[in-house]
Write a structure and sequence with these properties.
The chain is of the alpha/beta class. The chain folds into two domains: 217 residues, 3-Layer(aba) Sandwich (Rossmann fold); 36 residues, no CATH class. Helices cover 48% and strands 13% of the residues. The protein has nine helices and seven strands, in the order H-E-H-E-H-E-H-E-H-E-H-E-H-H-H-E. The N and C termini lie far apart (42 Å). Pfam families: adh_short_C2.
């Protein structure tokens, strides 16, 4: 096979993207759609889902709060009904969580971050793995962690804790599911350009008593390439991992971050 052909995912893959109606998730859904995959997107935001429907009428959609196990189960039933199975699970949904010292973080904010970022991964996995085991296409699970899943992150402890946990989940599942030919990897985005990151920078600037521009400069100074990454950078990595070129990559936590040196 031509090496360039190895870099293109197999046409017709059935792909589920959680949190797929905006940001990184939307870029991933768009990329797989352009690669001739059959894509299902779920999201908590009805307006974002409607924009997805308008932009890509062929993408299947559902609305769910991913921290609610019953709602995730309903989404998985709908995925099975509409796609007839599943080849790729992109466990992408997550929130930034609160910014502040550990003694200032409210229990409800901590629990909401853990439920959305970590528990949701389990809710999807428990229903998706039987479908992945049943497919003859090269099945793959891609979990969205963060550079905060390999580095400490002061004032963002709930977020960092969940992202470290996702790496442990991925490495454990790669061992567990490898004999079933299911590959499991995590992507660790760095500082992703966009409104969500700007909100994080603003919150951290306020928490530490500096200006937005000063805090943004501090973020960029920590990146070897001195630039943010884009949602398309992340989407490109998901396509690679789902392609034949990635068939022997499993159990990896892959940073797409311009080499963030510290947080």
């Amino acid at each position: 096979m031509n090496i360039l052909e190895l870099l293109r995912p197999q046409p017709g893959l059935r792909v589920l993207v959680s949190g797929g109606a905006a940001g990184i998730g939307a870029a991933i859904a768009d990329a797989f759609s352009q690669a001739d995959a059959t894509v299902y997107v779920c999201d908590v935001d009805p307006s974002a889902i409607e924009r997805t429907r308008q932009r890509h009428p062929t993408i299947h959609t559902g609305i769910a709060n991913v921290s609610n196990g019953a709602q995730v189960e309903a989404i998985m039933d709908d995925v099975h009904a509409k796609l007839g199975g599943l080849d790729i699970l992109i466990n992408n949904a997550g929130i930034a969580g609160p910014t502040g010292g550990i003694d200032a973080i409210e229990p409800d904010d901590w629990e909401r971050t853990v439920s959305t970022n970590l528990n949701s991964q389990y809710y999807f996995l428990r229903k998706a793995v039987p479908l992945l085991k049943a497919t003859s296409a090269s099945p793959s699970i891609i979990a969205m962690s963060s550079v905060a899943g390999r580095l400490g992150y002061a004032f963002r402890t709930p977020y960092a804790s969940t992202k470290w946990a996702i790496v442990g989940l991925v490495k454990s599942l790669a061992i567990e599911l490898g004999p079933s030919n299911i590959r499991v990897n995590a992507i660790l985005p760095g500082v992703v350009e966009g409104e969500r990151m700007y909100r994080v920078i603003a919150a951290r600037a306020e928490a530490t008593g500096v200006s937005f521009n000063e805090m943004k400069g501090q973020y960029l100074a920590k990146i070897s390439l001195r630039r943010m990454v884009t949602v398309d950078d992340i989407a490109a990595m998901t396509l690679f991992l789902a392609s034949p070129a990635g068939r022997n990559i499993s159990g990896q936590a892959i940073s797409v971050d311009g080499n963030v040196e510290y947080l």
